[in-house]
Amino acid sequence: MAFPSTTVQMKKRIIALILAISVLGSSIIIGRLFQLQVVQAEDLQKRAARQQMRVTSLSAQRGTIYDRNGEILAMSGTVWTVYLSPVDIDSEEERSLIAKGLSEILDVSEEFVLEKSKRNTYYEIIKKKIERPLADEVTQFVTENGITCVGLEEDYKRYYPYGTLASTVLGFTGSENQGAYGIEAYYDSVLSGTNGQIVSAKNAWGTDMPFKYEKMYEAQNGNDLVLTIDVNIQRFVDKHLEQAVIEHEVQNKACAVVMDVKTGEILAMSTKPDFDPNSPNTIYDENVQAQLDAITDEDARQKALLEAQYEQWRNKAISDPYEPGSVFKIITASSVLEEKVISLNHSFTCTGTYESGGVTYHCWKLAGHGTQNFAQTLQNSCNPAFISYGQALGKEKFREYFQAFGLTQTTGIDLPGEAGSIYHTEEDFGITELSSSSFGQTFKVTTLQLITAVSAAVNGGKLMQPYVVKQVVDEEKNVVSETTPVVKRQVISNETSATVAALCESVVSEGSGRKAQLPGFRIGGKTGTSEKLGANDSDWKILSFVGFAPADDPQIAVLVMLDEPKLDDPYGSTIAAPIVKNMLADILPYLGMEPQVDVDKDTSVEVPYLTDVMLEEAQSQLIDLGLKARIVGDGDSVLKQVPQYGYEIPYGGTVILYTDETELAENVSVPNVLGKTGKQANTAILNAGLNIKIEGEFPDNVQTQVVSQSPLPDEKVQPGTVVTVTVQQVGDTAASESS
Ligand SMILES: [Zn+2]
How many Cβ atoms from other residues are within 10 Å of residue 207's Cβ? Predict the structure, then answer.
């Protein structure tokens, strides 16, 4: 803390004290006292100010925030505060020299410095948080001119090296280095440490005191945080979400959460558009800034600016409850299967409408889905079927599971600003409310609550406590505390959970979630579309998709939610699913999950003719065929492709699309796969960025070995080139499969 500026009252008190001492100690006559009070009052005040204890603050360094891999997300760098001690100014010449010099270096007005220089104090801040080059200039200026009344004090400034990355999670700090939002605010007491002080004294006449007094209280630096957030996963999520917001003209922001379903750790949490915590007051959404600029009334604009700032800091994933729509069918399905009120063999006939409690509900497919088994009702996201499931479950049990899945309480994540859900009370939960709730409408939950509930449905039935801070670490890198995963409760059995995960996989492999298919990976998921409650314009919808992988042993879940995308026919299945797919396409290989291309089956695909085709169209053609695209160059259309049209490559193979004549991908070496098993050869060739074509017989459960390959090992070829390998069955003595 800076020494408080001398107030009038304080000055009076100090003068009175000095006078009292003088009277008692020196028997000064009244006349002298009068002279002192009236004639020399001003001079004395100045001396009094000099005699005060000088307290210099020593700022504690705020702790660093790391991601789970040790990447720095927030750190404090040294900056300086320039101060002036007006009572120590020797002459009018010095005063004007200081005013001129400091105003030029620090970009403040000369009048401002002059005004401060005339105050009766020894500590006036001229500028805060200046960085190294300016601080050096100030030092040079005062040294060259022999100025002793201008000083520099160390302070810290917060830097966020990744800019907007995870900004709504990290938050930011205020001008006094205090946590103002997000993790910075939630963990402020852990990060901030304790400031120190140097207290020293000097006498009123500038000479040394009879005793010397100086005491230093050292600053205690703050502790560091290690987050569960992974910079790379966050980057993937940010990239795809940002793109989606632009592409679909999302009106009311979008958010995404990636959760480790087994631990509840948050690997990424994104809201777009967001802000840069290095400059949190700057409005980052150009449209919002344009709206602000258009306001002519100054007061109104200031008010709107504050609102816009607050809005851009909001962490949508935890602060904005919304109607989950059909994603919630995972929860209804889990509940009825766990209660065994509906079996997998149950058959339901959808006619397109369903009567319940005097209300007629429509299926989204107006003509009806016809007769379906349980899995098909989830694949088709059939509303009438789920209304019937809700009724089979009953009001009480429905509410019980709703609560057990954590949807009646905030998750308790270690972040500020978490909103609770909005749902029917017991009294107003009638048959109509039960019906609409069964397919995810007429109640609101947050994105975080929903992904936590879905994770419980597929992770073996455990509701986990979500969290963002893994460890608190001190200056010497000792772990002060560590967050361990907390199972809140077992909501459904392990067996039911496995069934639910398999059902969700069928939604992606065969049902309405097809657009989330990722060749070589087993993905489970569910779409969601909901109209906004109370929205005047029913065209506004919230689209969402939850996906998880691998479906047979879920590790991570991703939930993406777009609030008010601008579309003619907005269904979650066509918009949100591919976003999640694109995120998973980046995340899963990053996490070391290799695509499992089934080489034992004849699943080869003929590469289509893509030359001169627009890039987007080419990409979607490849996706539909179960192939991957790798794009080289910045062009809009395909100039060249490898492999060429007509080649047969396995399902899940990669086609390189060149969009720029000048850019050529670097050639790669063909790996040596001779003597390897078919599976090993497949992995090695795919990992080299090449495609494989396998020739020869290889019945199930029989050991195979590569006997020839073309091109030969170590030959340099373009990425995407097809390597043809011939496999043969080997005898009982063959090396065991070790992939
Ligand atoms: Zn239906």
Answer: 8
Q: Cα-atom radius of gyration of the chain, to the nearest Å? A: 34
- Interval between CA 385 and ligand 1 midpoint (Å): 7
- Convert the pLDDT of each residue in 138-173 to its tens digit: 989 998 998 888 988 888 889 999 999 999 999 999
Residue 61 DSSP class:
P
CA of 70 to the centre of ligand 1 (A): 49
- Per DSSP (E only), the strands in 282-399 are 347-350, 353-356, 359-362, 370-373
Task: State if pTM tops 0.85.
Answer: no
C-beta separation of 450 from 546 below 8 A:
yes
The residue with tokens 């409690």 is 357
Determine the distance separating the centroid of ligand 1 and the alpha carbon of 373, expressed in angstroms.
12
d(CA 177, CA 116): 24
Q: Catalytic residues, which ones?
A: 326
CA of residue 255 to ligand 1 center, whole Å: 29
Tens digits of residue pLDDT in 373-395 = 999 999 999 999 999 999 999 99
Contact 93, 41 (CB under 8 A): no
CA–centroid distance, residue 360 to ligand 1 (Å) = 13
Distance between CA atoms of 66 and 160, rounded to whole angstroms?
A: 11
| Strand runs labelled E in 54-113 | 54-58, 65-66, 72-84
Q: Under DSSP, is residue 213 helix (H, G, I), strand (E, B) or coil?
A: coil
Rounded Cα gap, residues 659 and 639, in angstroms: 5
Nearest-CA neighbor of 173 among 199, 197, 192, 146? 192
> Does residue 729 contact residue 714 with C-beta atoms inside 8 Å?
no
Within 8 A by CB and 6+ apart from 461, the residues are 490, 491, 492, 493, 494, 496, 497
